[in-house]
Amino acid sequence: MESSVRSMTGYGRGEHIAEDRKFTIELKSVNHRYNDINIKLPRSLISLEDKIKKHIMKQVFRGKTDVYIGFETFAVDDVDVKLNEVLAQAYVGKLKILQEKMGLEGGNFLDLTAKFPDVLTVEKPQKDEKVIWEALLPALDEAVTRFVAMRQMEGGALKRDILEKAERIIILVDKVKERSPLVVEEYRDKLNNRLKDLLDGVDIDPQRIATEVAIFADRGCVDEEITRLKSHLVQLADILEKGGQVGRKLDFLVQEMNRESNTIASKANDIQIVQATIELKSEIEKIREQIQNLE
Fold this sequence. Notes:
Blueprint: E1 10-18, E2 21-30, E3 35-40, H1 49-57, E4 63-73, E5 80-83, H2 85-102, H3 110-115, E6 120-123, H4 129-199, H5 206-220, H6 223-242, H7 247-267, H8 271-291
Helix pairs in contact: 4-5, 4-6, 4-8, 6-7, 7-8
């Protein structure tokens, strides 16, 4: 099984002619939380519906997929015309009564009777299910193959876009990491200068300054959040690289990334960190939107 990343949107068409029978199959899909496959097919093929669905589900694991199956036959023995003789006789009997009452001439009611509902009905005899399945399968496989190929192509584009956004997040996280210790130093300098102005020459207790700075640094420390966020980004790239059904895994991972970015934002006490965090959250949201398209 191909391990590439797939989009949940796609289209595929297949066609196959076996003897005097022609099968045309189309698959179209859109995003969906689960694997929802809806099949529309002629009544003569209704017995194969479950078999068709199971065959598609071997390669399609998520999304809302509509399957359209067309069936044409050119074989005489595939069509049976039924005559309802009792109904035809009843129609003719009533027509004769009407003719007598109206004083009409003529007595050939064949054309008129044949047009009445249910006098002549066309049926397609039930053929061997195995024979029909073997004739339908090449069209189904062709449609599924093209369908999956399109989802893989779109999935590859989504993967590249998500990884580009992840690189942007790494840059922003590094910016926050570099800026954080400078904020503490700047706070120490501001605190010293403020106290000097307020105390006007009185000696300042270095220990008290150190304590205040330590409290400030601890309150604004985002080292753990940065470490976890970077770990999530590594996991994101790893999941995308392994491929397969990644949508739900990445959705959970992005929720964790959002949680860390929100914590960083709540601890931010510097305009540059605030700005970086806003950009960071924006990129995470863009990734979340793209992930909603993945199988």
